[in-house]
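User: My collaborator and I are trying to settle a disagreement about how two of our proteins should look. Neither of us wants to argue from intuition anymore, so we agreed to look at predicted structures for both before our next call. Could you fold the first one, then the second, and keep them clearly separated?

Assistant: That sounds like a sensible way to settle it. I'll keep them separate. The first protein:
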Amino acid sequence: MTTNEFISIHKAEDVADLALRLKQYPEIDAAYALVQIAGWQKAVQKLPELANIKGWIWPKKLSMEQCSSEETARIKRQIIGDTYTTGADFTGGAGVDSYYLSERAETWHYVEQQEDLCTMAEHNFRLVGRPIRVHHCSAESFAESMPDVDVAFIDPARRNVHGGKVFKLEDCSPNLSTLLPSLLPHCKRLLIKLSPMLDISEAMRQLSAANRAYIIAVRNEVKELLILFDKESKRNKESEYTDNHLITAINIMRNSAESYSFTEAEEAAAIAQYLSPTEPVEGYLYEPNAAILKAGAFRLMSERYAVRKLGINTHLYQSDELVEAFPGRIWKIQVVVDKTKQKLLSGQQANILTRNYPLKPDDIRKKLKLRDGGEQYIIGARIADKAVLLLADRIK
């Protein structure tokens, strides 16, 4: 039995269990087989298109964890647009972004320091007939003599030499502050992927020539912060940072995506309407999706959708009439859970979430003697300085 035959036969089996039985197969490359089986199993969920390509080679676990998902890679291609024929990926890694970004390109450059990843990428790109040139070198050395390209992409490593995570721009590798001066003159558009833990405003200030920022969430979990430099854009051609840069929050759902754009200046000028603690809490309750919450468009949500914010630091909103277009979760409020209602809920099943509320969900669950799950929601929030519990049904 060849190693590839072994992989094909056992690719759906438990990797830890397989590792214990590998002595039965002395003829195969055991280490390689386990990496490929683990990689394929991860790819089935994360990279379903590539998982269906027979003969595609997968990198080791860390590279699989760090690489873009199919969904976020496709979003990057949409952001860059269709009007390009040449491009370069300065941090090639597993090759996922290069694969999707090169779909419309006549020539694409994949740059990577690790020789094993270059060998893997060369095989994979040749397998699918992509016009991608593999360069085994650092991003800095490629930038020194790079050809002019329409678009460039870079995803700096966010781990230090000891394997610990880093978030600051200056701690990433390659160092953008030293790389950008030699890179930017040779590309019309540059897309940079950064840690979603970074403060967006601070990132835009440090990368002062950038035009736009994108926060990408997948099913309400923030995954990526992307910064776009576009020399041909009519927006913000000045070289210094302004609060008029466009920020776009995108939440990718199962069959669609929510997109919301604004500028920091618009958020600063927005006037939010607030729900009074003396008013009855009824109607509909809203929570912006995770990408919007990360972007910080709190007052603007109230103004644009004519919904009332529950409090300055409570990022939930209320309206008497349903606003179906609201980008996020929506609940129909049933009742305020006072002490009388708490007794009636005892032993029932409910999902619990809290926003700016003094108790944690587990504390509420114990206090009300609730079972987790079901169709109902109990939402703890603060209206001005008043803490309330709301019983609600989710409708979106």
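The second protein, kept apart from the first:
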Amino acid sequence: MSVKGTDVVERKPRGGQDAAESADYTTGSGAPAAAAATLEQALGVQVRAIRRELDLTVSDLAGAAGISVGMLSKIENGQISPSLATLQAISKALNVPITTLFSAFEERRDCSFVRANQGVVIERRGTKVGHQYQLLGHGLGGDIVVEPYLISLSEEAAPYTGFRHAGVEFIYMLSGEVLYRHADRTYHLRPGDALMFDSGASHGPEDLIVTPMSYLSIIVYGRDRH
């Protein structure tokens, strides 16, 4: 497991009955179980990712590696087990060590760890005076981008309802009180209240009823692969 941060203790499951019982533990999430990738699938994912980073087409890479387009397509889709000679040809065409092609098969998952009060304070586009954004996580890969912020509004902060961006936003009120606008509706948020919405519509705090205030904002959107 790759972890950004320090002082993290990784606990391994105990054997015997405890291990068997732990296999039955689930969360309340509706997310499907994470499937274990085969070596062929992991190789395919890695080859495709590097090829796209280099802005190469399947035809480009197949030609450079001296293999057919059909074979490369099957490799990228994890449908065949390529020989070491073929993998060596592909790695040479991609200008990476052959070991790089196997790195996606390593049992790793990204993790971002941020200590209390150590989030990166950033100036988000459109940030207004008195609106402080503290980024609580970063560096994760994949097709989905997740940006968790601790937003603090001071007594000098001014209302602003013109925020618009791609994706979905989730807000959890921690302190203070606000009348929060989303599109043509407003929501009276107090500590413990939650709001999730399409962030493509105009939104933001319309009436700062009790300040200073703070709330957790999690923005989720698809990663731009172009």
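Some points you might bring to the call about the second protein. The first helix runs from residue 17 to 22. Residues 37-105 form a domain with the 434 Repressor (Amino-terminal Domain) fold (CATH 1.10.260.40).
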